[in-house]
Fold these 4 entries.
Entry 1:
Amino acid sequence: MSSRRDFIQKATLGSVAAAISGTGFVACKESQQPDSKEPPSAVFPLALATWDFGAKANDEAWKILSTGGSALDAVVAGVGVIEADPKNTTVGIGGAPDRDGRVTLDACVMAPDGRCGAVCALEHIVHPAQVARAVMEKTPHAIIVGVGALEFALSQGFKKENLLTEESRLAWEAWKKTSKYEPKINVELHDTIGMITIDQRGDIAGCCTTSGLAYKMRGRVGDSPIIGAGLFVDNEIGAATATGLGEAVIRAVGSFLVVELMRHGRTPQEACEEAVSRVMKKYQDYMEIQVGFVAVNKQGQIGAYSIQSGFNYALLTGSDKGVYDAKYKVQAKEE
Ligand code: ASP
């Protein structure tokens, strides 16, 4: 399993090589892919989440799933563990701020019956996914943003908190010294938890929650809270979620695309691969970015694919618990 840090190191080496050799990346044929396990098939219940830190979310969700609870309860509880972890600098409290030093969070949730809710650029609330769920359940709307989202959260009893940890503040101060205050597209400075759960009844729910791109412009919203981009659940077919550069995922309406491809007969793996190709076609500088999808269909087959090496996901079922490297299109040059 290659870690996120390995990926960043390879990407950095890749960009040094890029200056010398052109792209700094090599196309990766199927036969050159790492010796990862075939995407596992699973039985229900099931929890699936982006990145290795998703394993903690899966464990939390499992407490609910294994005792017959709903996919929706499980997915919101699962991501809640990551949102509450101040050491995670890409989700919830401790998330990297925008370039003005404000932590603004994006999240969405989808229920098996097709309902959805989202919040964008929400400040001061540790659990944006819970607020997104409240938008879905307690308002006639699907998305509430900014100050309105904060007012709504407070009206629902959520507590206002400072989300900028000392560690994140120091990293932001350091960034300001070297950045010329420019918001940059940078593969190192973002990650998201996208999570899908299937309960014992076979019902599917999903959630995506993030602090988004570090040092972004104020008000920037990524793919994560956009239904169909960062997350899509169709209880008849399956679900998909995305991580990586939101601007690129939005162009392809990536997660909806994955689910639609599954509807038309593709396996989750094939669907993720096609969606990554679509993203790459629409985003010329794809060598500079990362985008990855994970998906599961109604039969419990899993798929995952990313533009570059380094993307992994966590899976938990009654018979399988692990973090798996996703297959990928291109590999950062070793040197
Ligand atoms: N998709 C997120 C965003 O663009 C960040 C990430 O997943 O890395 O805000």
Entry 2:
Amino acid sequence: MSVDYNTIKGQLEACGQQHLLKCYDDLESSSQSTFLDQLSRIPWDSIPSLVEQYLNAQSCSLPRGDVAPAEVTIADPETAAELASRGEEIIRAGRVAAFTVAGGQGTRLGWTGPKGTYPATPVSGKPLFRVFAEQIEAASRRWDTPIRWYIMTSEANDAATRSFFADNNWFGLPRTQIMLFPQGMMPCLDASDGKVLMESPGCVAMSPDGHGGSLGALRRSGAIEQMEMLGIDTISYFQIDNPIAPVIDPVFIGLHADPERSSGEMSSKMVPKIRPDEKVGVFCTVGGHTEVIEYSDLPSSLQSETDAEGRLRYDAGNIAVHLLSVPFAKRLSEQNELPWHRAVKKVPCCDPTTGQELIPEEPNGIKLEQFIFDALPLAGRSATLEVARSREFAPIKNATGTDSPESCRQAQCDLYGQWLEDNGVVVERDADGHVLASIEISPLTAMHSGDLAGQELPARLDQGDRLVL
Ligand code: UTP
């Protein structure tokens, strides 16, 4: 579709961003039309209010309303069995789809490709995408239904992600079971005056619109429409960087679908925080609704408050695993009510008049992102399920230290070592309780320790041993 220069010019003038067209006449005609096309996809009418709200906003936003710890479900074995049976019925009926958000830039890890291509398992180094593909295949077999897998990419990694899937023959899954789509982008603002930055002459500096942008992306891509057509009403949302997250969990699905505990719109998993100042968002109740308060926004007096048994009162750490109903995701995607969060970063850009490249030495630009957990207060009643960190949460975020490939590798060895011990294998551990052998168990072999019963297993595993099942 050809885009009219004068229409765009009018829109830019109306919101005080006409500087973007200063170099327009110097561009080649093909670059002019690519530029106009990019400009036409930016919602200019919302820019003035974003500038007004976020140019000088403090990054810390205090919760509005009375804050209390979130109500958390700790499922004892009997409750878990009940919930699982309800959840399994829903899965078998083909009502659940898996949804991975994989549009992030992975700057902290420093991996150049899409994060899903990162080798994550302790022995064979399977990439994250393969780990989840195997989980999806295992779940499809177990519940006898092809689980659909939706994956959100970004403009920056969409092509590389598609090639990776194609090169790996879609990890053996039917091609029709997987849908990839890119997330939206937002223009970066000059932190000093709110002017939209240009990356180069004829190109606005853009950044991904955050994992909260997944709601809009689900709708624009046609994923929501496809789900509706297929009778899928539940989206199992998880991040690309946590290889031990169970992507389809019947207990969680059963809880989400329990009308006594949840409105069935959006549910979450939590792990208890390790220490008061652990840098994770915390599920709280604010003004009667479940919300995640970011660690930097939770007053330190509340962070360290304990109950009669000495347990932190605000300990419900967010691990970014959610269930969303399709109607809820659709409604939110149409209303686009999630707030924006600003991050001031170094954004390479150019002078709009001369086109000269500007390499910032200090953070110069505002990037705007939406967060998925901001959808929680827009749901009716939201359920939060406590799960064990050792079983479900070992993210790869940083290159070293906490939440790094090494901590994730160790967490996998510890988890699979535990499964083997549950089945009578002697597993050597160090003084801190960490497993000394390298172990990996494919979801196609076992989805939990009970699946190993009756399988041929070694008698013991010691330091230096390597086992792939
Ligand atoms: P993170 O907040 O860990 O960000 O994303 P990141 O981009 O992966 O890593 P850093 O901060 O640059 O080091 C959490 C999850 O949300 C996805 C990521 O792919 C990851 O699964 N995400 C994040 C998106 O899909 N889009 C975004 O715009 C941001």
Entry 3:
Amino acid sequence: MAPFDKQKTAGQGTVLPRHIAIIMDGNGRWAQKRGLPRTAGHAAGAETFRRVASYCRDLGIEYLTVYAFSTENWKRSAEEVSAIMGLLKKYLEEAIEKMRRENVRIRILGDTSVLSGELRGLIERVESIDSTLDSHTQANLCVNYGGRDEIIRAVKAWQADPDRGELTERELSKYLYTAGMPDPDLVIRPGGEERVSNFLLWQSAYSEFYFTDTLWPDFTERDMDAAIASYQSRNRRYGGVK
Ligand code: FPP
């Protein structure tokens, strides 16, 4: 039996997370341990993402958001950057073929303007299929994403909008990449580090965090079960008393 309650769904008094976010960390170390190039770790990490996304869909998780490439990741070697972009391209090409069958919507969150024309074209195609799917699960891939960058962009977009409302938390949320989505209930970071690394800074204000030493390529459905079980044991107070 799963170590958590699969019957509980989002909503009042129920606790299956609606939105899970993951910092996919540990790919490089996973590869190094095997004497492989770091890029092999990212390829294994992309496979893990495919498996975890299907599992989340089967569980009925509505949103899965993963950190695929940060605004800081450009500092890595040209070879590593190009390998990650290649994996994204492959994933998007596959998605164009398989999305209807797999019934998972895909969104890219981040500043995509600096990506190659080919990648931007694929993103546009994937996101246009997305609107025709009757899916209960959405996978968000954060690419050239940074939490601080996102907030600055949102403020600028709000400022430039002639129809803007009074500046409130709810109003600014409309200008974030995640506009219209619920905040993540649970943020998972495998790979042994316990920090946020500029991921979903605004949205994770009241998220529960789950850290594990498992390296991302080794992360399995059982690790996801353990993360959800841990989440279900928390007492979410949102700053109040319960
Ligand atoms: C962090 O591990 C991981 C990344 C910077 C890249 C993650 C990208 C992928 C898993 C591929 C993206 C493609 C799809 C389709 C999701 P690290 O390299 O910092 O690991 P380390 O801490 O062990 O060095």
Entry 4:
Amino acid sequence: MLNGSDKVRTAVLVSGGGTNLQAILNARGDVIRHAEISLVISSKSKAYALERAKNANIPAVVISAKALGGREAFEQELQRVLEAHGIELIVLAGFLTILSPEFTRRWDHRILNIHPALIPSFCGKEYYGLHVHEAALARGVKVTGATVHFVNEIPDGGEILLQKAVEVLPGDTPEVLQRRVMEQAEWILLPQAVETVAADLLKAKDPS
Ligand code: GAR
């Protein structure tokens, strides 16, 4: 699947505001040296992440399971677009559609996800976005954080690559905690993981 260039062609999949996409874009040429952000795919036409892609001159497409009438058609189209752009690595950055086992097997060890908690806490199907932080506050944990992991057929169940702990402070609201976890963990970990995996993919291609 690799294309012979010195950078791994990478697609970032989004559904929302895209602050993690922005962190990846900002890290190009700095932390990220072996991945090229070649494509942004949004599951929602109104996602602000699309503006971020446009501002960075990155091709962006909307692929909506709802508009296509279901997950099978969605994944077919997703695969077609990824192949058309020669994509080798996929980064889920606040992407809210769960991918099928067939899709994750096809992209084995080539899909990364950022999750806003310390897996195995507050993870799995129903834990996404602000709900994760609501659950952490409701449970009264004093430390939370973020995790970057490979994606397999189990939601949030793939091999863990990086984790970083973040303190929960008295008086935190879900929004305040979400912002702290983003600033202190997500926006740091995700570019680091993209770089590590991209560099490993290139090394596997050309071990010399
Ligand atoms: C981020 O906090 C990300 O970790 C989370 O959604 C947010 C997206 O924000 N992802 C999940 O909860 C996945 N289970 P962003 O669009 O500003 O990057």
